[in-house]
Amino acid sequence: MEYKDLIASISEILEIEVDCLKPESDFREVSDYWSSLTGFALMIFIEEKSGREIDVEEFLELKTVEDIFNRVNLKNLVRL
Q: What does the pLDDT look like over 31-52, one tens digit per residue?
């Protein structure tokens, strides 16, 4: 997945402007409306884009937008 597409999708889920997200952004902190439902939506997004399930503990280890990008693109690395 391209980084700009990931940013667009995450910003939509978080209901924030795209330019509010940087690779180092803590995605839980940039949204004024973070909730468990938002977290669940991001987990589902990650699962759909990576093709792998993600458990809660693994999701909680993700802190930044870059962490999500790396997790989503992990499927491409595994295939190499």
A: 888 999 999 999 999 999 988 8
Q: Determine the Cα–Cα distance for residues 25 and 58; give it in Å rounded to an integer.
A: 18
Name the pTM for this structure. 0.85
| CATH number for the domain running over 3-79 | 1.10.1200.10
Q: What is the sign of the dihedral through the CA atoms of 64, 69, 72 and 76? A: negative
Alpha helices in the chain (DSSP H): 3-14, 36-50, 56-61, 65-72, 74-79
Query: Where do the domains of the chain lie?
Result: 3-79
